[in-house]
Design the sequence.
C-alpha cells in the first residue's frame, strides 16, 4: 500500500483549478457529500499527459447530484442515469458525475451494480490499477488500492485476479491491450497477457459497438503496432478481426504518418492492416458496425484499381483531388505510398503528392444546370449529361477555362 505522503499533488493542475471544475466539485460538497475526479484524468495528469474529459465519482446519489447541480445554477443532462451517471454542465463544459458503485453481479457483458459510499469498493470494480486513482478538489491524490507504483512504472495491471476480472467483462481483454499500447513502455504484464490469451473466446459475446470503440482507440495508440502483434501472436486478434492481418503494412502506414506529421488515423491504419479485397472491407464493416464514412476508407484500400504506383503528374493529381475531395485523396495517397514497391520513387515525391490539398484548392465548376437550361436544353437527365461532359473537358484543361469559355462550348439546340 502506498502511503499518501508518497503521492504527488495535483493542486496546481489547470483542469482542476479551472473555475468550472471547482464549481461542480463545490456544488456536490455543498450537500455534505464527497466528490473526486477519477480515472483517465487523474492517470494522465500524473503522467504529465494531456487531459481531455473529466469524470467525477461521488458519494451523492444521482438524484442528489441533480438537485445540488441545479441549485448551484449548473446544467444537468440525464443521459447516463441508468448507470448512475449524471452529466453536469458548467460554463459549457460537461462533467460525467457517477455515484460510487460496487459490482453485485457480472455476466461477461453487463454488470448489476449497487450504489455505495465506499471508495475502496468503487476502486475495486475498475479495470486496471492505474485507472483507480482519485483526486479531490484540493488536488490530493487518493489511491485506495495502491495503484500509484504501477502508474509510475507505466505498468498496466488488472485489479485483482485477471481471469476473474475478464470473466466479468470480456471487453477488458481489448482494454488491456489498448491501455498497454497507450501507456506502457515495456512488454504487456505477463499475468494479464496469459489470462487474456486463455479467455479470448469470450470476446465473441461482445457487442460490435464496444469492439469498434476499443479497437479504434487501440489502433491510434502510441504503441499500436506492438499491441496488434501481441494480439495476433496470442490468437486474440483473430477473435475480433475477420480478415488476415498484415502488420508489415500497419508498420509502414504508421511510419509514413509520423514522417509527414499526420495525426494517427484509425480507419487508415485498419485499412492498411487488414483490407486487401472488397470482401475484407464488407466483413470488417459488419464486424465493427462501421459508419458509411468509415466503410468508405476501407473500400479505398480494397480498390487496387485506384491505387497509385507512383505520384501522378501535377495536372492528373489535381484532377484526382478534384474528383475525390481532400480526405479521400489524402488517404488514397497514403495507402498507395504504404504499398509502394518502386524504390525509384522517393519519400519526398510521395509527401509532395500528399501535401497537394494544402497548396491547391479545387475550384468550383463555374457553370451550373441553370446555364444549360438557359441554352434551351429541357430540364431532365440531358442537362446532367451536358454538364458532366463540360466538367470533364474543364478538368482535362487543368481547370483553366473560365465561365465564358465554358458557356461558349455549350451546345446550341
Ligand atoms: P480515456 O482517456 O481513454 O477515456 P479512461 O480511463 O477515461 O481513458 P474510459 O473508458 O473513459 O477510460 O473509462 C473511465 C474509467 O472507468 C476507467 O478509468 C476505469 O476506471 C473505468 N472503466 C471503464 N470501463 C471499464 C470496464 N470495462 N471495466 C472496469 N472499469 C472500467
Ligand atoms: Mg474517459
Sequence:
Amino acid at each position: 500500500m502506498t502511503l499518501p505522503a508518497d503521492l504527488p499533488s495535483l493542486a496546481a493542475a489547470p483542469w482542476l483549478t479551472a473555475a468550472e471544475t471547482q464549481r461542480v466539485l463545490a456544488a456536490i460538497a455543498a450537500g455534505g457529500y464527497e466528490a473526486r475526479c477519477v480515472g483517465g484524468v487523474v492517470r494522465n495528469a500524473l503522467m504529465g499527459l494531456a487531459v481531455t474529459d473529466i469524470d467525477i465519482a461521488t458519494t451523492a446519489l444521482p438524484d442528489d447530484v441533480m438537485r445540488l447541480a441545479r441549485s448551484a445554477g449548473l446544467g444537468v443532462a440525464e443521459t447516463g442515469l441508468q448507470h448512475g451517471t449524471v452529466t453536469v454542465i458548467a460554463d459549457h463544459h460537461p462533467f460525467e458525475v457517477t455515484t460510487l458503485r460496487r459490482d453485485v453481479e457480472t455476466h461477461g457483458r453487463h454488470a448489476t451494480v449497487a450504489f455505495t459510499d465506499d471508495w475502496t469498493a468503487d476502486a475495486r470494480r475498475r479495470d486496471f490499477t492505474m485507472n483507480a486513482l482519485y483526486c479531490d478538489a484540493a488536488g490530493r491524490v487518493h489511491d485506495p488500492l495502491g495503484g500509484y507504483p504501477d502508474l509510475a512504472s507505466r505498468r498496466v495491471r488488472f485489479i485483482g485476479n485477471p481471469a476473474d476480472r475478464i470473466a466479468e467483462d470480456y471487453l477488458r481483454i481489448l482494454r488491456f491491450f489498448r491501455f498497454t499500447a497507450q501507456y506502457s513502455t515495456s512488454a504487456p504484464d505477463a499475468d494479464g497477457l496469459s489470462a487474456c490469451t486463455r479467455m479470448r473466446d469470450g470476446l465473441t459475446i461482445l457487442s460490435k459497438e464496444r469492439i469498434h470503440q476499443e479497437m479504434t482507440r487501440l489502433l491510434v495508440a502510441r504503441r499500436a503496432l506492438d499491441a496488434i502483434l501481441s494480439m495476433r501472436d496470442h490468437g486474440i486478434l483473430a477473435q475480433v478481426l475477420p480478415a488476415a492481418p498484415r502488420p508489415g503494412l500497419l508498420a509502414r502506414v504508421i511510419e509514413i504518418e509520423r514522417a509527414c506529421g499526420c495525426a494517427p488515423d484509425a480507419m487508415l491504419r485498419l485499412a492498411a492492416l487488414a483490407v486487401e479485397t472488397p470482401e475484407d472491407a464488407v466483413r470488417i464493416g459488419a464486424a465493427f458496425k462501421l459508419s458509411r464514412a468509415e466503410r468508405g476508407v476501407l473500400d479505398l484500400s480494397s480498390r487496387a484499381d485506384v491505387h497509385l504506383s507512383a505520384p501522378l503528374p501535377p495536372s492528373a493529381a489535381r484532377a484526382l483531388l478534384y474528383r475525390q475531395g481532400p480526405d479521400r485523396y489524402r488517404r488514397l495517397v497514403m495507402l498507395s505510398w504504404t504499398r509502394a514497391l518502386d524504390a525509384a520513387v522517393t519519400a519526398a515525391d510521395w509527401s509532395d503528392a500528399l501535401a497537394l490539398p494544402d497548396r491547391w484548392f479545387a475550384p468550383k465548376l463555374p457553370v451550373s444546370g441553370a446555364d444549360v437550361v438557359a441554352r434551351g436544353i429541357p430540364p431532365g437527365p440531358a442537362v446532367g449529361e451536358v454538364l458532366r461532359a463540360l466538367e470533364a473537358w474543364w478538368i482535362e484543361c487543368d481547370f483553366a477555362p473560365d465561365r465564358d469559355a465554358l458557356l461558349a462550348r455549350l451546345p446550341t439546340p
Summary: Residues 40, 53 surround magnesium ion (ligand 2) (CB under 6 Å). The longest helix spans residues 381-396. The chain has four domains: 1-153, 162-240, 241-362, 369-408.
